[in-house]
Amino acid sequence: MKLRVTINDASRDVEVPDDTIEQATDFFDRMDRDMDGGWQMGPEWIEKPDRIQRCQIAADKLLAAIGSSNLDLMEMMAAYILNRVPDTRELVIDADGEMLNTEVIRGRDEARPTAAPGNDAPLSRMDALEQANRDVGKVYKAGKVYRFAVFDDSTGDWIESPPMDREDQAQALRTKAFESRYRYLVGEDR
């Protein structure tokens, strides 16, 4: 598999053999145990890093590996990310040391049902609910602000929400985005 890594507008692909992603789980589990006790992510101490924050930590190690041309470490950090968040397609790494500003961009599973442009058939309510949950990401903290991301069918990219100072603000806006996506998927807003 390939993982695109973008640093300061320069991109490169890190090649990761599929068997590394599947067979290095003991190494990945050790990484998770190291992070279970909390992690210093830039100026903030994160008590319990979530899955995306763990990928941001691995991305920081990947950045160091790129800087030192350590190909083995680059491959292992990319493999960790692809193992823990399999639909990751790109990392946009903050090169200024703000791990929480690193973006984990996820792609779409092409096999799942969709009501994207060009496919006008509405989904069942259950399929629409599941799809909307996949298309509207959870609220997460990035530095001192809260955000979420929504998958854009037309471009195939994840679009981040504007930064919000409070988690409840972000959650309220996410709920509106989720409801809008659900209504579209069942054919109510077309």
Tell me what you see in this structure:
Strand 7 (140-142) and strand 8 form a beta hairpin. This protein has a 4-stranded mixed β-sheet with strand order 2-1-5-6, with helices on one face. 31% of the residues are buried. With 190 residues, the chain is α+β, with helices and mostly antiparallel strands. The longest helix is centred in the last third of the chain and has 19 residues, at 167-185. It has 6 helices and 10 strands; from the N terminus they run ββααββααββαββββα. It is 42% helix and 22% strand.
Radius of gyration: 18 Å
Give unreliable regions as ranges. 109-118
Number of extended strands: 10
Per DSSP, what share of the residues sits in E-state strands of 2 or more residues? 15-25%
The averaged pLDDT comes out at: 85
**Biggest β-sheet strands, sense, barrel:** 4 strands, mixed
Structural class: alpha+beta
The multimeric state of the shown protein is single chain
Topology order in helix (H) and strand (E) letters: EEHHEEHHEEHEEEEH
**Shape verdict:** globular
The strands making up the biggest β-sheet line up spatially as 2-1-5-6
Percent helix range: 40-55%
Distance between the termini: 36 Å
Number of H- or I-type helical stretches:
6
Summarize the structure in short.
The chain is of the alpha+beta class and 190 residues long.
